[in-house]
């Protein structure tokens, strides 16, 4: 079983309405590839680009929710929506699970009801920012580097109440520590080791150890620039970041968050969904079977409330 904590298929389908989730080859994740691999659960992010006018961002988010329901969930009778560990554990052998997430709180502005609406529609994990700032917190691309706002603290309180995973990927450094102090369910859906690759989107050893101390999920991502610092990367680079987090004590934290369909670059040997099974076999040549099980799915499951 494989659980992938992040992809941007919904954004691609929103941006390219002529594409189809079922079979469009332009998508790195599509239904045809999904049915042929061992990915049991895929997390689908709502990502509204920052060039959408502020008054239209929530509408764009709702459009992506509609795409999730109409194209992903209705694409095949065996694709089921999942929101909890129990939902995943109850999936039958021939069923796949789709989880809805939000990447960046900018579409909600300062309106907690908009956020609650997305939660009621099924969002289970929320990244507080993309790289920019918003009403909740600053992102890693904002030079000011501020942490949680007062509204942001209300948002975290809501997540704690509704058992929503609080995703620290893309957050400012101060925002990260604010979340670690206040969130009951922190994760990093798609971030790598800053020690191995000094990209601002990656997490330093202190941050990784803080997540590990809570056995919080850390999804290693397949973005070449986050793996090597340039456009070229291969599967060994992915495994190096996995091993780095493992050696920091992250055996029960590290997992996978591909970011398929979210970037232009790709990892050699992990160009799209069709390569996932071969990659898992490669993992087994470097790591123990027990750890590969934790890495591919168990660590994510353990972070989900029942």
Automatic annotation (TrEMBL):
<dbReference type="InterPro" id="IPR008257">
    <property type="entry name" value="Pept_M19"/>
</dbReference>
<protein>
    <submittedName>
        <fullName>Membrane dipeptidase</fullName>
    </submittedName>
</protein>
<dbReference type="GO" id="GO:0070573">
    <property type="term" value="F:metallodipeptidase activity"/>
</dbReference>
<dbReference type="InterPro" id="IPR032466">
    <property type="entry name" value="Metal_Hydrolase"/>
</dbReference>
<dbReference type="GO" id="GO:0006508">
    <property type="term" value="P:proteolysis"/>
</dbReference>
<dbReference type="Pfam" id="PF01244">
    <property type="entry name" value="Peptidase_M19"/>
</dbReference>
């Amino acid at each position: 079983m494989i659980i992938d904590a992040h992809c941007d298929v919904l954004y691609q389908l929103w941006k390219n309405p002529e594409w189809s989730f079922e079979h469009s080859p332009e998508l790195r994740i599509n239904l045809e590839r999904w049915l042929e691999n061992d990915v049991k659960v895929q997390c689908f992010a709502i990502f509204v680009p920052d060039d959408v006018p502020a008054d239209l961002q929530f509408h764009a988010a709702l459009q992506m929710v509609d795409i999730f329901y109409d194209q992903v969930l209705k694409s095949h009778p065996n694709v089921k929506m999942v929101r909890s560990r129990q939902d995943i554990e109850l999936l039958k052998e021939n069923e796949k699970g789709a989880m809805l997430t939000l990447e960046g709180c900018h579409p909600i502005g300062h309106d907690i009801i908009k956020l609650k609406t997305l939660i009621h529609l099924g969002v289970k994990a929320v990244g507080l920012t993309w790289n920019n700032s918003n009403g909740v917190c600053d992102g890693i691309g904002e030079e000011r580097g501020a942490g949680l706002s007062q509204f942001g603290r209300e948002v975290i309180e809501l997540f704690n109440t509704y058992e929503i995973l609080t995703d620290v990927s893309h957050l400012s450094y101060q925002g990260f520590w604010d979340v670690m102090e206040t969130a009951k369910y922190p994760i990093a859906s798609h971030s790598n080791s800053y020690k191995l690759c000094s990209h601002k989107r990656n997490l330093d050893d202190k941050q990784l150890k803080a997540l590990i101390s809570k056995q919080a999920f850390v999804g290693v991502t397949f973005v070449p620039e986050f793996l090597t610092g340039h456009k070229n990367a291969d599967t060994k680079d992915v495994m190096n970041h996995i091993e780095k987090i493992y050696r920091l004590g992250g055996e029960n934290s590290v997992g996978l968050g591909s970011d398929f369909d979210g970037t232009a670059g790709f990892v050699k040997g992990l160009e799209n969904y069709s390569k996932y099974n071969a990659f898992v076999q490669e993992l087994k040549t470097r790591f123990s079977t027990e750890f590969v099980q934790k890495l591919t799915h168990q660590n994510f499951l353990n972070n989900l409330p029942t």
